[in-house]
Amino acid sequence: YSLGTALAVIGNTLIAVSLNVQKYAHRKRETQEEEEESSLCGPNSYLRSYTWWVGIVLMAVGEVGNFVAYGFAPASVVAPLGDLIVDCSFHDCIMCENKNDIITFFKRLIFIKYILPPTCLYVCIAVDRFCMLILVLKTTDCDCGFQNTSCVAVLVNGGLAMVFNNESLRMRDVVGASFAIVGSFLVVTFSSKPKLILNAQELIAHLGGWQFIIYMFLEIVMFGIIIFIKSQDVKNVFIHLSLVAILGSFTVISAKAVSGLLALTLEGKSQLGEPILYIMVVIMIGTTLFQVKYLNAAMRLYDIATVVPINFVLFTISAILAGTLFYQELSREPGINILMFIFGCLLSFMGVIFIAGDKGE
């Protein structure tokens, strides 16, 4: 469980960095297009950018970390865990045009992560001259020295962080991010945490469960509706990121299935002759590629300060719901845990509304 948690943190950290690198590539390309006024520059012109491909490689490495993590920890924990450590000022500094500013930022950055006892999730402290972010995720019965901190504390002073970027930071962004972090913490805390690895026969049985069939049907219908709305040239950040979230739910299920089957194979219970393994590999790769496509479309059109939090919450909720229904984890949980889990989901959505509201195009 601890190894899965650590891999999720590392993997999602790399993914967070990759998103910022890709956004930087998009902005740099837009500037070049305006200067060149070239007719050869199209919606996919970023594919010729070396910077964008660096971001893709970082994302791939991060996803590998997540993939391995699914073999050691539940999907309901892996999906949201790592994204909570993102320094809220990072995206503002990494996208500045002045390379010296980037170097200065990394020189001044102090990044300390304490792996606490099992009753604590973790503590992440990121400090630079522009922004301070302190996250303390802790339960009341933990004896680790952080007393009377059974909540998430977020202290942000990001006023000067905006000097390197045109994206603004508002008080409602801070409030929304706080809601999203607290909501995600509740989701992680009150979700079921057994380590469940299914063999091929058990995996097929779970795929045929009525709960998952209904969920899959609803997801496919929603995906079709959103694609239709998108074809009408409707501009909204939720359109692209909802597609990412829906695809992400299938990525999570397939990634955990493949990781589990390979883990059983390494234990001497070979699953390599089972067709379901290769079907899941195809689903995992296909959904991941389309997620990259829609996520990059969103980053071309909207501020990363909007894209990253909304994508985090939508993807997390979708992934947890899919994993919970597929593995039927909440069916073994007490009522209070289910209620707090739902409350965490709602709180995360409130955070999204605060962050995305009033930003316009």
Automatic annotation (TrEMBL):
<dbReference type="GO" id="GO:0015095">
    <property type="term" value="F:magnesium ion transmembrane transporter activity"/>
</dbReference>
<feature type="transmembrane region" description="Helical">
    <location>
        <begin position="307"/>
        <end position="326"/>
    </location>
</feature>
<feature type="transmembrane region" description="Helical">
    <location>
        <begin position="241"/>
        <end position="264"/>
    </location>
</feature>
<keyword id="KW-1133">Transmembrane helix</keyword>
<feature type="transmembrane region" description="Helical">
    <location>
        <begin position="212"/>
        <end position="229"/>
    </location>
</feature>
<dbReference type="Pfam" id="PF05653">
    <property type="entry name" value="Mg_trans_NIPA"/>
</dbReference>
<keyword id="KW-0812">Transmembrane</keyword>
<dbReference type="GO" id="GO:0016020">
    <property type="term" value="C:membrane"/>
</dbReference>
<feature type="transmembrane region" description="Helical">
    <location>
        <begin position="52"/>
        <end position="73"/>
    </location>
</feature>
<keyword id="KW-0472">Membrane</keyword>
<protein>
    <recommendedName>
        <fullName>NIPA like domain containing 2</fullName>
    </recommendedName>
</protein>
<dbReference type="InterPro" id="IPR008521">
    <property type="entry name" value="Mg_trans_NIPA"/>
</dbReference>
<comment type="similarity">
    <text>Belongs to the NIPA family.</text>
</comment>
<feature type="transmembrane region" description="Helical">
    <location>
        <begin position="174"/>
        <end position="192"/>
    </location>
</feature>
<feature type="transmembrane region" description="Helical">
    <location>
        <begin position="338"/>
        <end position="357"/>
    </location>
</feature>
<feature type="transmembrane region" description="Helical">
    <location>
        <begin position="276"/>
        <end position="295"/>
    </location>
</feature>
